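Hi support team,

I submitted a single chain yesterday and got back a structure, but I'm not sure I'm reading the token output correctly. Could someone confirm the output below corresponds to the sequence I sent? I've pasted both exactly as they appear in my results page.

Thanks,
R.
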Amino acid sequence: MNEKATFDQYGLSPGIQQAIRAMGFEQATPIQAKAIKPFLAGRDLIVQAPTGTGKTCAFGIPVSEFVDTYNKNAQVLILSPTRELAIQTSGVIKSLTKYKENVRLATLYGGENIQKQLAALRRNPQIIIATPGRLLDHIQRRTAKLDGIQTVVLDEADRMLDMGFKQDLNRILKAVPQQRQTVLFSATLPKEIMAIARSYQHDAQHIAVKEDTLTVKTVEQFYTTVANGAKKHALLSLLERNSDTLSLVFVNMKHRADKLCKDLKRQGIRAEALHGDVKQQKRERIMAAFRAGEIDVLVATDVAARGIDVRNIDIVINYDLPNDSDCYVHRIGRTGRANRCGTAYTFICQDEIKMLGTIMRETKAVITPAEPALTAAC
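Hi R., thanks for writing in. Yes, this is the structure output for that exact sequence:
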């Protein structure tokens, strides 16, 4: 498949093509070029794709195309790990179906008045977008009818497992018809994900797309060798020199995120920590404050940061060196978005120089040495 494919080659209906044009899309991203055709053909898919590759449209375009507006049953179920992602996905599907009449959606998540969701379900939606916990609530209430589901999409499946939804996913997948299409999107494919694939998919096609290295090219990248005991001082110095910027700091462990956040607050820096133990409602409050500029520094682990889509992040700082090249690209891709210039700094210990070299070789990135207090040039 040509990775510069245009959308007119998929035989999409005029209404969907009009919506795609209205959204400003001309060419399919690599993940869309590889996934849309087999998705439309009804194949089960295991799609390995990080955030920022266009994965929402990779499943949103096919489900918007083949949903039957004359059928009052729910036909498509899209599971999302968080309220934030469910709302985002719902917005994309609404845009894609703007010119296709009588498509009804229900978006189900915790933290919202359930009466509003019950009203949406009574309108017989053809597409249900839900977080696992809230969907199970509706299943138990018998307010969500899933016996007509033909396609199930698990979006960010690895993150759902990391958040403790394994049992919920099993219960949901057993509640939908066995004869269905199951499509799994995940940034990583740990053993638990493959176990779900073996249990609930049939002859699944595996598609893997790495994050576009062009994203990396919009980011000016630096590294500095810092002893473990001096990292905090280097970070404070860097943040002081860039005090008017929005910064995202990556660490490898939850407890380090909490400790570093407390240390920054003691220095008068408006900081918050984001990791797998942070409850959804608190996460939403933190993200809203970060977008509004009420928080200057977000300290995050990799899984917790997946799905962050804040356009004006100026600086990404790898306080801890990531474990692999894909993780590095995902981290620095949080800046340099929407044609903006971004800056990334990576702190490494002396014994991590070899790993940094591997990252540079595999990502084809130019990461230049710099002092920790270097002022962002972009």
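A quick pointer for reading it: Confidence is low (pLDDT under 50) at residues 372-378. Let us know if anything else looks off.

Best,
Support desk
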